[in-house]
Amino acid sequence: MVNLSKPELMSVLFGGLISGAKPNKYNMRRYFLLLFLFVSLTLSSYAQKVISLYNGKAPGSESWTWKETESMSNAFSTPLVYNVSDPTITVYPADPQIANGTAIVVCPGGAFQFLSISNEGTQVVKWLNSKGITAFIVKYRLIHTVSTDPVAEVMTMMQNRDDFEKLTDPIITMAIQDGKKAMEYVRAHAAEYNINPKRIGLMGFSAGGTVTMGVGTSYTPEQRPDFLAPIYLYRDPKRNMGVPKDAPPIFICAASDDQLSLAPHSVALYNDWIAANKPAELHMFSKGGHGFGMRKQNLPSDKWIERFGDWLELQGFLKR
């Protein structure tokens, strides 16, 4: 079978039509065959690979039997994933023509009850891919949702903050371990995905920011992120490990009007990094609330991803 690139296929497919060649039965048959091959090639380039982070059951959750589920009917009116018991990582490779060797592992947020898989996941990945960055979304372990509405359930739970923290504490430990396993996987398979093993970052939103900093302050060489990007993070006081001696550069952003009052968490993290003489950049937007992600609200926080791009370029992570 002849191995044709996409541009070559396009030329074969449409060259005759453009030149005005008269179609016949043989040409049309060849046209439709090549059209099928072109569509198949195009679709396959967007097929995503999903990898389990553990062989068999994840340690600490061996007895979990519930199944991962996606929700569209919820108070947030956005795709959410809940009841993750088998943590995975999904690969989103950058187009080889623009790939620059940088990779980012993305941890969506959701109060450890669900994952905002679109607003803080696939939409972020789409932007990263456009910059030549290969991305990986982590589905880390979550609290068991017994209803079909994880948003309503977590809002009820959070009415008693002490009980909620007791419930989430063991889950946070598991989620951070999943984040570490994700970093290990990406670094071990860097050559497979045409990634520079010294240009692998970790980004997380809200609860995903907790995972990001749990990994980013207690890692082995195989797990160490080369840069960090916690976005409106919740900084768990029980897991404040300080600033590592070899701490990576960090990009931090949040909004002052965060409804969960988490803005000071980002400021404190920035101050710690600066006090340790480690590279850090902080963007505190006046408006944006909590969970702005990739939503367009006509607010200052809409520009956060562009500022992140500026920071990546300054750090040299967008160079091929």
Short description:
37% of the residues lie in helices and 16% in strands. The chain is an alpha/beta fold.
Q: Would you kindly provide a written description of the structure presented here, covering whatever features stand out?
A:
The chain folds into 2 domains: 36 residues, no CATH class; 266 residues, Alpha/Beta hydrolase fold, catalytic domain (Rossmann fold). It has 320 residues and is an alpha/beta fold. Helix 1 packs antiparallel against helix 2 and helix 5 packs across helix 6. The strands form 2 sheets. An 8-stranded mixed sheet has the order 1-4-7-5-8-9-10-11, sandwiched between helices. A 3-stranded antiparallel sheet has the order 2-3-6. The chain is globular and about 45 Å long. It has 8 helices and 11 strands.
Characteristic key phrases:
320 residues, alpha/beta, Rossmann fold, eight-stranded mixed β-sheet, 37% helix, disordered N terminus
- CATH class annotation of the largest domain: Alpha Beta
* Dominant shape: globular
Q: Kindly provide the radius of gyration, computed on alpha-carbon positions and rounded to a whole number of angstroms.
A: 22 Å
At the third CATH level, what is the topology name of the largest domain? Rossmann fold
Low-confidence stretches: 1-21, 34-46
- Determine the structural class based on helices, strands and strand pairing: alpha/beta
**DSSP strand count:** 11
Q: What is the straight-line distance between the termini?
A: 32 Å
Q: Kindly give the count of domains.
A: 2
- What is the strand arrangement across the widest sheet? 1-4-7-5-8-9-10-11
Helix content: 25-40%
Instruction: Name the average pLDDT.
Output: 89
Total count of helical runs of at least 4 residues: 8
CATH superfamily of the largest domain: Alpha/Beta hydrolase fold, catalytic domain
CATH architecture of the largest domain: 3-Layer(aba) Sandwich
Strand content: 15-25%
What series of H and E elements makes up the topology?
HHEEEEEEHEHHEHEEHEH
Main sheet makeup: 8 strands, mixed
